[in-house]
Each structure stands twice: as structure tokens, then as C-alpha cells.
Design goal:
Blueprint: E1 3-8, E2 17-18, H1 34-39, E3 43-48, H2 58-64, E4 70-75, E5 89-93, E6 101-102, H3 106-116, E7 120-126, H4 134-142, E8 147-152, H5 158-161, E9 167-170, H6 171-177, H7 183-194, H8 198-212, H9 219-224, H10 226-249, E10 253-254, E11 259-260, E12 272-275, E13 280-282, E14 291-295, E15 298-302, E16 306-309, H11 315-320, H12 323-328
Parallel strand pairs: 1-3, 1-12, 3-4, 4-5, 5-7, 7-8, 8-10, 9-11
Antiparallel strand pairs: 2-6, 12-13, 13-16, 14-15
Length: about 375
């Protein structure tokens, strides 16, 4: 069985300490080099990055230089190496400022983008802090021929979540509610006690319209998070300007969504796998390690999901073990989209690695499936 892509984590050591990185959940270490002999030829494309800085492990690259397949690397831009001359594409993980990345030297990373030119793509986490700075930044690197991949933050705590510029609820539900006053909920309840009324009629009509389109709706979330919704619309306006820059310079722009859509989800990691630094194989980076995420204004514990270890088992046998989960994630509607559920607040399922469809592990609130979050592996 040959994968479309294999993501390889060479090391979990890093030169930076980023506030929104989940690396604190992993043990520092390097991938045993004998693993590479086992996975050579297993994929058409190899994406080199994980919870560490790959260029800290030069011996790894001497082993994979002769791999038959496209090689992509993601680096934080603080190290330069002749290794970068032999890979097909280089992602430079950078912030427009150094607000959340302790140890980042922005000009140094931009210098690497300039040197790499068309082979480079800047990987930027979009936040409230840097949103308005992105047009000027993108124009600067586009002059070098470098593209940009922008992702929303996958938060680990409420403080980081508040820096996000996205709203998880389906955009169509937000558009249906725009212009409505939140008093409709109170008035609808009052009408219920009176046996009927105009507010109750409008409320039922709204629900019927949403349900007829195959969506659910969380009105309390929409009414209670208007500031976040307004920020998401503003982010869309900023990215319209970025698209103009991409067209002008003829460079690549991979952009995120700023609203969810429960009917338009797709796993970007289908027919791919994540090779962890200890030789374990997972379906994706999200499930590689146990960690907490903060999404939809609640904590969610992600339990690690690995199917085997290539140091002890045949790599084809390990990958074959993912076939059951692979079939499940072919259609993301197998997983509920909790952001549209009116009962998500305080929901036990939403806080655990299982969902109300009885899926375990669950992709129910995966920001990558809705393109709110993006990464090199999925593009």
C-alpha cells in the first residue's frame, strides 16, 4: 500500500518556544535513523516536520536525500543549511511580528524566504495581533517570489483562542441570523406561554429554513459572539486584498476559511499518515499526541491515536491497520459539527475524544476538516 503523503517528525527539539504550539506535550528526542529504511518508498510525497525544528537533525536529511518522491520541509527560519538546496519545497514558519514566538527573529526568517525565492512559502498563523499587518508582509515576500500559507490558530487555552479571527459556526447559519435581534429568543419563549405569536412564528420559520438545508443552528452562540463574527468578516476583507497581491505577483496563496460549514468538510489527510519521532504511526498530527485544545469556547481533550510502530512491525501492516478509520473519514459528515449544535455548551461528548455519533477517535471539531486551519500536508 502506497500512501499519498507521509509526514515525518525527525525531532521534537526546537529553537523556539511558541505560545500556541502543543510541543510541551511531547518528550524531546530524535527519530531513530533505521526507521527511514522501513518507510522509504511508502509514499509519493514526504512532508518533513512535526513538533520540532527538522534542521537540528542533519543526519536525518542525509538519509532521505535519495528518497523516491517529492520532499517538502517546514522550518522556523532560524537556521540555514545546504539541506534546503535538495528539497522540492520549503515552508518557513514565521509570524509577522514576534508576539507569540519566543526566540523568533523576523528579519532573519524573511532573509531565508528571500534566498529561497519561488521554492519558499511562508507559513503564518493569523491572529488579531497580525491580521492588519498581513497585506504589507505578503507584498514584501511576494517580491521575492515566495508564496504564503495562512492558517487560523488551533488554540490550547482561552487566551490563545481569544486571539483567533474565525467563527466555528456554519456561515449559512450566521447569514440567516444577520439583522435579527437576539430578543427574538425571549419573545418566542413568551409567545409559547401565550399559546402563539409573531415572534414564535418567525423563530419556527427560521429553524425550519435552516433544517431544510441540512444544517442545525446555535443561536445563543451567534448572538453571544457577535464581536468574533465581525472579526471573521474583517479577516475575509483582508484576504481579498491578499488575493489581489497573489494575482499581481503570480505567487501562491493558501488561505483559511473564517467560518465553518458542516456540509463542506473534508479531511485533508486522507490516504496520509504521520510518523512520530518514536516510530509510531498515527492518522495525522492532531492525533499523534494527547493534548488539550480549546475550541467553540470549551476545552477538548484529544487522546493520542496510533495504530502501530514501524520499529517493531512491518510498515505495510501498520498502515493497513488504519483502513477502518480511513473509510470513516472519507466522509466527514460521519462526524457531527458541534459548533452548530445548540447543546454544545457543557456537552460531555464535546469535551472528550468521542462524539454523539459514537465515533472514537472523533474528528467532530477538527478545524482542518473545515479549512479553518491549514498546513503544508493538506495542500
Amino acid at each position: 500500500m502506497r500512501l499519498k503523503k507521509l509526514q515525518i517528525e525527525p525531532t521534537t527539539f526546537c529553537t523556539l518556544d511558541c505560545e500556541y504550539c502543543h510541543r510541551k506535550n511531547v518528550t524531546p528526542g530524535d527519530l531513530p535513523l533505521e526507521v527511514l529504511e522501513k518507510v522509504e518508498g511508502v509514499a509519493k510525497e514526504y512532508v518533513i516536520y512535526g513538533y520540532g525544528e527538522p534542521l537540528l537533525y542533519p543526519e536525518f536529511f542525509r538519509k532521505i536525500e535519495g528518497f523516491n518522491g517529492k520532499i517538502i520541509i517546514s522550518t522556523n527560519g532560524m537556521l540555514d543549511s545546504e539541506i534546503l538546496d535538495v528539497v522540492d519545497k520549503v515552508g518557513v514558519s514565521i509570524d509577522v511580528n514576534d508576539k507569540f514566538r519566543k526566540g523568533l527573529e523576523v528579519d532573519r526568517a524573511i532573509g531565508l524566504l528571500k534566498k529561497l525565492g519561488e521554492r519558499a512559502i511562508a507559513e503564518v498563523v493569523v491572529t488579531r495581533q497580525n491580521l492588519e499587518l498581513l497585506p504589507q508582509f505578503f507584498e514584501r515576500i511576494a517580491e521575492f517570489g515566495a508564496g504564503m500559507l495562512a492558517t487560523n490558530v488551533v488554540a490550547s487555552n482561552p487566551a490563545i483562542y481569544e486571539q483567533g479571527v474565525y467563527f466555528e459556526g456554519s456561515r449559512i447559519t450566521v447569514e440567516e441570523v444577520l439583522g435579527l435581534d437576539e430578543s427574538i429568543l425571549v419573545e418566542a419563549i413568551r409567545d409559547c406561554s401565550r399559546g402563539g405569536g409573531e415572534s414564535l412564528r418567525r423563530y419556527k420559520h427560521l429553524l425550519k429554513d435552516i433544517y431544510s438545508k441540512g444544517y442545525s443552528i446555535n443561536l445563543l452562540s451567534i448572538f453571544g459572539r457577535k464581536d468574533r463574527i465581525e472579526t471573521a468578516f474583517r479577516a475575509e476583507d483582508v484576504f481579498e486584498r491578499l488575493r489581489e497581491t497573489a494575482r499581481e505577483y503570480g505567487v501562491e496563496l493558501i488561505e483559511p476559511s473564517f467560518f465553518g460549514d458542516s456540509k463542506a468538510r473534508e479531511c485533508p489527510y486522507k490516504n496520509s499518515a504521520f510518523l512520530r519521532v518514536d516510530g509510531s504511526i498515527s492518522s495525522c498530527m492532531t492525533f499523534a499526541y494527547t493534548h488539550n485544545e480549546y475550541v467553540n469556547e470549551h476545552y477538548k481533550k484529544i487522546e493520542e491515536y496510533t495504530v502501530g510502530n514501524v520499529l517493531r512491525e512491518d510498515v505495510d501492516d501498520v498502515i493497513e491497520k488504519m483502513s477502518k478509520f480511513e473509510k470513516l473519514r472519507e466522509d466527514m459528515e460521519n462526524f457531527p459539527w458541534c459548533a452548530d449544535c445548540p447543546y454544545v455548551e457543557g456537552c460531555w461528548y464535546a469535551e472528550t475524544n468521542v462524539d454523539c455519533y459514537a465515533n472514537q477517535p472523533s474528528c467532530s471539531e477538527c478545524l482542518y476538516s473545515s479549512r479553518i486551519a491549514r498546513c503544508l500536508l493538506g495542500d
